[in-house]
Design goal:
alpha+beta, Immunoglobulin-like, Zincin-like, Neutral Protease, domain 2, 4 domains, five-stranded antiparallel β-sheet, 28 strands, Aminopeptidase, Peptidase_M1
């Protein structure tokens, strides 16, 4: 999954983590169906409204024809051992196959539905109780039948047992079915009748509202003037929100699914449609899907809507024929799915090649979902996406979104093998899914679009973000013990995704990519259709490489934080010392006990491609034969996940030798210098001197790091007018000339990175007060806003020009962008406008903006974007905090329907302050609140504010002194 939720009290959950990040969802206001009204759904077997319960003819699990033997799931012994430190379901029953049937869906009002789930299961020991996971589901009846009691369509003969008591534990999200008769070890069929709700919380089986582009089919779900599509989001623990199930990743099973829908609508699921038949009335039909492979509950998916699609066939043949790859959208949007389709069908073939396992399913569907809390979800055979992660409108969309789509499509398709075919044994090893999918997603994009230079992008964006979070005390190890699955969402963060992928990149560089992928392929083959652990991956990579991968990688996975390598120079040699890096620069001895394996990657001769591959395996070491009078660079291409702290004179020399550095080296040099200034191990004057040397830089990705570094400096020191003005002038001196050189006009067939650099430099120059840039941005905006020239603003420059005009202007400019938000049909238009509106510096408009963000005009999934925009606006970010305090009841009510957005809003909106008093005020305010949805966000906020405030207090005078000495203040 790309992008993701927070946690409840770790004491209760037993999560071994310093600070908590994600949380079990707050109780939802969604209605329940009263048990008192329940009647047996089997009261009239012949009734046409009843679903066909099951088909007895065996259907082989897809993928098994590939010659892969399904891996054995974790042994009973291993499961018993794990249960000691995990809160798992009682191990009395293990699912083998589910048949899920949903019918009588209500497309307005209650949005309820009825369902029957029959589970082929193995009872492993005598019991009178079976416990499943269930949330917001009303179980009306349950019974157990023997396997021999099944005919093709209905149950025959007496049941073995009927549940005499059905009880719920809402805290653990479980339902207990109690029987008078004891169930003995055997194969059984558990049949459960239930009712549920298609909620609007973007979790479980839910509804998404949207504004149709084309004329919808007459029977499209609709309430008032709003149209709906239906889809699912089950990861991590929300399959239980759609039907009762054994909702744990290592309780894999196969799934048969069917659903009753209006005849004019399309139903999708993991597998192709097997058959259709008439429903309970002439306007309805039952759609039945083929049996899935063995998989975890969180990967089951279905969707219903007024869909259309674009299709391409794989070039590679699978069992002698190509596989159809489709991207589905609601009616009128399919043409915007063509770029995603181009990426998808090629990526399926590419991964089949490098993983040495053919894509395991008979089809690959992608679906654009109008309301989606995350970026995308890797459901096997039916991947779901936020619209901006899969749709691109040529000529209207910013080209940056092509980059995003290519990556997110690849990330999710990587999961079809790494996560779906082979699943982590338990949620503590989530990084096996997400870290690998992140790395291999970029690998695929680099393969198809080498001119995008995406590994430099990964270093500038992915590695630096991972560094930032992992430098806080609020960080956690990549692999962290998770006792209760409801708390797992804490680790859907930059550590699992970006640090995980960064250490995979480091390992791949060390072993060699070919060797690394050979080991990955062996891992996948050995554990296909089963579950695996980190140690299983290390074993496969050790075998492929002949090295002790477990030995040198284990600390990177199971220890918190990362090191900084401090370099000292002596005649003819250097000494290196590793220690834990904290953004506060005050690691205590007990926090600095880890000794990491650190590949030093020393390049001592700029004219040679060879790199010294030795590793630092002790706390310190001395390296001879390095002439300190000449050139050398540690951690070439930032391949290793660590900071490097050079002596000031060496840092200055490197800054004067930029022509000898790769793009990744430059990004790493800037990132390291900035982080070390914040921690106090470096200084802001040294950082500014380094930045000054980049005036002639022409690489967009280096400029991206320059922009990020300068943005943080201007944010931290924003309340000191002299320093703020000095940094503004300093930024203008760098970006202004560069913006003038690159100009405003996009050329036909222009390189993607050149176009992105133009947008970046215009934004940087304009926001630092570069007069000609501001004037041209105003001229183009006026032509566009007055209707004189609707093409005056290039689609790639909307964000820069809108932001500049809202920032420099007043009500007129703000309202023009607001109206564009309301009317735009560009898939990325709303994101761009919402961010631009947050650049206003007028307090009255900030109030209007926040009221707008919390209105029904802005989808819940996008509310955190408003918080992020104001947090980046140093002049008025305090008004966001005042608004939150003043309007807490309405703010929390709006956000409480989805904890993903709630956590993001708190974290992104409050972490930019650099004032201890505001930090204390935030802590005091939330003391009396139920912070279950954003516990960890508050700790991250506190860590960031304390870091920023301490940095400001320590270096404010030094920064001003340097700026004055160099004519900027």
């Amino acid at each position: 999954m790309w992008g993701r939720r927070s946690i409840a009290a770790s004491k209760r959950a037993g999560v071994a983590i310093h600070a908590r990040h994600r949380v079990a969802l707050c109780p939802s206001p969604l209605s329940f169906f009263p048990t008192s009204s329940a009647t047996s759904l089997f009261s009239s077997i012949s009734s046409p409204q009843l679903p066909r319960l099951r088909t007895r003819s065996p259907i082989p699990a897809p993928g098994l024809h590939l010659g892969l033997t399904p891996a054995r799931s974790c042994s009973a012994e291993a499961r018993m051992m794990a249960s000691a430190d995990r809160e798992t379901l009682p191990d009395v029953a293990k699912p083998v196959n589910y048949h899920v049937s949903l019918f009588d869906l209500q497309f307005s009002g209650s949005w309820g539905y009825k369902g029957v789930v029959t589970v082929d299961a193995k009872v492993t020991r005598a019991t009178k109780e079976i416990v499943l996971n269930s949330k917001e589901i009303d179980v009306q009846s349950a019974e157990v039948l023997g396997k021999d009691d099944l005919t093709d369509d209905v149950f025959a003969g007496a049941s073995l047992a009927k549940a005499t008591e059905i009880t719920y534990d809402k805290t653990s999200e479980r339902v207990a079915l109690k029987f008078e008769q004891e169930l003995t070890p055997s194969d059984i069929v558990l049949s459960i009748h239930f009712t549920g709700t298609m909620n609007n919380a973007m979790a479980g089986f839910y509804r998404s509202k949207y504004k149709p582009v084309g004329e919808p089919a007459a029977d499209t779900p609709k309430e008032g003037d709003v149209y709906y599509m239906l889809s699912t989001q089950f990861e991590s623990c929300d399959a239980r929100r759609a039907f009762p199930c054994f909702d744990e990743p290592n309780l894999k099973a196969t799934f048969d699914f069917e659903i009753e829908i209006p005849k004019g609508q399309t139903a999708l699921s993991n597998m192709p449609v097997q058959s259709e038949r008439d429903g309970s009335n002439s306007g309805l039909k039952f759609v039945t899907f083929e049996k899935t492979p063995v998989m975890s509950t969180y990967l089951l998916a279905w969707a219903v809507g007024d869909f259309e699609y674009v299709e391409a066939m794989t070039e590679r043949k699978y069992q002698g024929k190509s596989i159809p790859v489709r991207v589905y959208t609601t009616r009128g949007l399919k043409d915007q799915a063509r770029f995603a389709l181009e990426c998808a069908h090629r990526t399926v073939d590419y991964f089949s090649e490098i993983f040495e396992i053919e894509y395991p399913l008979p089809k690959a569907d992608l679906l654009a979902v109008h309301e989606f809390a995350m970026g995308a979800m890797e459901n096997w055979g039916l991947v779901t996406y936020r619209t901006t992660a899969v749709l691109f409108d040529e000529g209207k969309s910013d080209n940056r979104y092509k980059n995003r789509i290519a990556y997110v499509v690849a990330h999710e398709l990587a999961h079809q093998w790494f996560g779906n075919l082979v699943t982590m044994d338990w949620w503590n090893e989530l990084w096996l899914n997400e870290g690998f999918a992140t790395w291999v997603g970029w690998l695929a994009v680099d393969h198809f679009y080498p001119d995008w230079n995406v590994w430099s992008q990964f270093v500038a964006e992915g590695v630096q973000q991972a560094f930032h979070l992992d430098s806080l005390r609020a960080s956690h190890p990549i692999e962290v013990p998770v006792r209760n699955a409801l708390e797992v969402d804490q680790i859907f963060d930059h550590i699992s995704y970006l640090k995980g992928s960064s250490v995979i990149r480091m390992l791949s560089a060390h072993l060699g990519q070919e060797t690394f992928l050979r080991g990955v392929a062996d891992y996948l083959k050995s554990h296909a259709y089963g579950n695996a652990t980190t140690n299983d991956l290390w074993a496969a990579l050790s075998k492929a490489s002949g090295q002790d991968v477990h030995g040198f990688m284990d600390p990177w996975i199971r220890k918190i934080g990362f090191p900084v390598v401090t370099v000292a120079e002596e005649p003819g040699q250097i000494s290196v010392r590793q220690s834990r890096f904290l953004s506060t620069g005050d690691a205590k001895p007990e926090e600095d006990e880890t000794t990491w394996w650190i590949p030093l990657g020393i390049k001592a001769d700029p004219n040679l491609a060879t790199v010294d591959t030795r590793a630092l395996t002790e706390k310190s070491d001395t390296i001879g034969e390095i002439g300190t009078d000449g050139f050398y660079k540690i951690n070439k291409d930032l391949a290793g996940f660590y900071r490097t702290n050079y002596p000031p004179a060496r840092l200055a020399k490197l800054g004067q030798s930029l022509n000898l550095l790769s793009t990744e080296d430059k990004i790493g040099l800037l990132g390291d210098a900035a982080a070390l200034a914040v921690s106090g191990e470096g200084t802001t004057p040294a950082l500014l001197a380094l930045l000054e040397g980049f005036k002639e830089e022409q690489n967009q990705l280096v400029w991206s790091q320059l922009s990020s570094t300068l943005g943080n400096l201007r944010s931290v020191f924003s309340q000191n007018e002299q320093v703020a003005e000095g940094l503004k002038k300093f930024t203008r001196s760098l970006a202004g000339p560069a913006a003038e050189r690159i100009g405003w006009e996009f050329q036909p067939n222009e390189d993607y990175l050149i176009g992105q650099l133009r947008k970046l430099l215009i934004g940087m120059a304009g926001n630092s007060g570069h007069e000609s840039t501001v004037a041209e941005a105003k001229r183009r905006f006026d032509l566009w806003a007055t209707g004189k020239d609707q093409n005056a603003i290039h689609s790639n420059l909307r964000s820069a020009i809108f932001s500049l005009n809202v920032s420099e202007g007043g009500r007129e400019e703000y309202d023009a962008v607001k109206q564009e938000y309301l009317r735009t049909d560009s898939v990325d238009g709303k994101e761009i406008c919402l961010a631009a509106m947050g650049r206003t510096r007028d307090p009255a408009l900030v109030k209007d903006y926040l009221d707008f963000v919390f209105s029904d005009k802005v989808a819940i999934q996008d509310i955190h974007s408003g918080a992020a925009a104001l947090a980046a606006n140093s002049k008025v970010r305090h008004l966001l905090w005042e608004y939150i305090k003043t309007n807490w009841a309405s703010v929390s009510a709006r956000l409480s329907s989805n904890n993903v957005v709630f956590e993001r809003f708190v974290r992104m909106g409050l972490q930019k302050f650099a004032d201890h008093k505001i930090g204390e005020d935030i802590t005091d305010f939330f003391k009396s609140k139920d912070t279950g949805a954003y516990d960890r966000a508050l700790i991250i906020v506190s860590d960031n504010i304390n870091t920023n405030a301490s940095y400001k207090e320590r270096d404010e005078a030094l920064a001003l002194e340097w700026l004055r000495a160099h004519g900027y203040a």
